[in-house]
Design a protein that fits this description.
This protein is an all-alpha fold. It is 69% helix and 0% strand.
Length: 185
């Protein structure tokens, strides 16, 4: 079998990894690790916990790849594992507020100190507003708005119905809109 590449499809990678191909699993880790970490970091609020959660999720995925049935995408399946690991961690300990450093400001490129400071204030306000959301609302909003997942993918990853995701997303958007009202122009 040829070595897997970044262009190899998820289904082929999952099948090869299930048969013990470590290189295929490494491609999966490199492909999805960063987005799984971002999600874990934003939902646990602690970079160290996020690393632990993602590592535990990849260990669990490696052990369970032979049971991956491709009813959902590999991405959704991995996010589901991470979501369960985060929920387990939340049950063991109260949630820790999100680290402000996770909401990195997007450079404005203009070099205007006032604009950059204002932008950072906006990012900080959004971070605070996200921290105030209940876990399910925050998780749904992050997965849809930041990770670009569809509501159906989020439902599969979170173990909810699509209607529940829509409801949590609606409430999250409404709550964020109220909290961010002063930033509207």
């Amino acid at each position: 079998m040829a070595a897997p590449s970044d262009r190899t499809g998820d289904a082929a990678l999952a099948r090869a990894a299930a048969l013990g191909d470590r290189e295929s699993f490494e491609v999966i880790v490199h492909r999805y690790g960063p987005s799984l970490y971002r999600y874990a970091a934003r939902t646990t609020g602690d970079p160290g916990d996020a690393q632990d959660v993602v590592q535990e999720a990849f260990v669990a995925a490696w052990k369970a790849l032979d049971r991956f049935d491709a009813r959902s995408s590999l991405k959704t399946w991995l996010f589901s594992i991470v979501a369960h690991k985060v929920a387990d961690r939340n049950r063991r300990a109260r949630a820790v507020p999100i680290d402000d450093a996770l909401m990195d400001a997007i450079p404005t490129g203009g070099g205007d100190p006032f604009a950059e400071a204002t932008h950072q204030e906006l990012v900080d306000a959004l971070d605070r507003a996200l921290r105030e959301l209940p876990y399910r609302q925050r998780a749904c909003w992050i997965l849809v708005e930041i990770e670009g997942m569809s509501q159906a993918e989020v439902a599969a990853a979170q173990g909810m119905t699509p209607d529940a995701v829509r409801g949590h997303l609606f409430r999250a958007r409404r709550n964020l809109s109220e909290r961010m009202a002063r930033w509207r122009r």
